[in-house]
């Protein structure tokens, strides 16, 4: 799972950089000066894809139980699918806006983008549930260790009196 998360962050980095380059070149070539959703591809892919995945990678190292949690696996796959749909639709609709296509404001495009956002929402819930369970288990283990250490200290005090 660590490799999957790392590779996902690398792929999203490439997508984000390509999206930024595509935005700059297409708007320059078309002499476009208005606002377009194409501008959001770069930041969405880099922040949600790269930074978020690297954060998950760090959490997975700190909380090794995450690799065994099925919600984490499902969450990762749904997250990548949702982000791919969302970023893909930003790029598609943004390109249509730059090219001046009349159907760039089609409700169908908004519906597909909405599907990507729904997948992202479900994925975030699954990921947070998985992380929450691991934090709870870590706290329980720490509490047990503290209680055991406290018992040792109490036993030592009793035997020295």
How does this model look, in words?
There is one protein chain. By secondary structure, the protein is mainly α. It has one domain. 84% of the residues lie in helices and 0% in strands. The chain contains 4 helices and no strands. It has helices spanning 2-29, 39-62, 70-99, 107-160. α3 packs antiparallel against α4 (107-160). The longest helix is centred in the last third of the chain and has 54 residues, at 107-160. The protein is elongated, with a radius of gyration of 23 Å. The termini are far apart. The model has no long low-confidence stretch (mean pLDDT 91).
Task: Lay out the secondary structure.
Elements: H1 2-29, H2 39-62, H3 70-99, H4 107-160
Into how many domains do the coordinates divide?
Answer: 1
Q: Look at the helices and sheets and give the structural class.
A: mainly alpha
Q: In whole angstroms, how far apart are the ends?
A: 53 Å
Helix content: over 70%
How many strands? 0
Main sheet makeup: none
